[in-house]
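Quick entry, no commentary yet.
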Amino acid sequence: MKLKDALQNELTEKELDLLVRAYDVVGDIAITIIPPELEAKERIIGEALLRLNKNIKVVAKRHGKYGGELRTISLESIARENRKETEYKEYGVRFRLNPEKVYFSVRSSNERKRLASLVLPGEDILVMFSGIGAFPLVMAKNSLAGKIVGIEKNSHAHNYAEKNLTKNKKIKNVTFLEGDVVDVMPTLSMKFDRIAMPLPKTAENFLDKALSVLKQKGWLHFYDFQS
């Protein structure tokens, strides 16, 4: 059953037209958008989401849009448990995270696995803007990479990355460094066969840093949102 169908008897036709039917699920947290016109019905919408997905334990609504240098967003619990930390599993890797304090996209899951499938045995890899460690850990778990280094400025995300590395005990070839890539990359004593730049916006400002530590004939994975 779809969300709109689940609410047929609880919302008016006008309210159903305003309903945002898409939502993200991170671990056992559903993250949705509640239009201002439906705020009085947000608990009803949250309960409907809980009925539709028995694995969901928290329904949270977004406040505003992703913004700021660290691309975070404010969340508010509207149904069931009042918490924001969760555990998420992806391609054999377990993660802990708080989606309010860190930028994380479940929609990049297939891209992380795709990147892992491209890695050749022994490749040394750098992940700029590594967040909670998703790209480095998924690549480590699903490839025969050499050394993988992740750099992250958000202290909350870096701390989660360290915890996630500890949680996935069989992964031994990943190192996380905290700090701005502008400051950290000049201190690196190696060059890399493959570099990933999974930054939603402004990654082009750091291309020179990436190229300075990329080996000849190395691979650079650059990401950018186009409006």
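second:
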Amino acid sequence: TQQQHLIDSLAVTYQSLLKFTQQPIDQQLLTETKLGMLRAFPNQFGSNALLNAHLGAIGFYQESAQTFQDNQQQLQQITAQHIQDAIQRHIHPEHLTMIVLSPTLDQIQLRQQLAMSSNPDEWQENGAP
């Protein structure tokens, strides 16, 4: 991202993260995702190497031999609320740390821009989308 667009990019990223953590998952998207995962499941065993990898993981994590069947049933039972609960339990935008790397970054200008826009709620007011 070019420096003149950096604050806008940070604002969009933060607002997207907030939206992701605060709004429930779309039910149609969840249904389509689960169907796609269920359809792709057999492809995970398309070679001996893949099958051995799955069996190795079962052994490593000391799971039961029913893991393959249980996995599909558990996937079908996942609800949008399960996902929302997990997101809110594990993703905390208020503790976000952003790291900006650039050999040509004007650090003084960036600090001034961030100071003016230190509150993400104000980013939109200061011209960010």
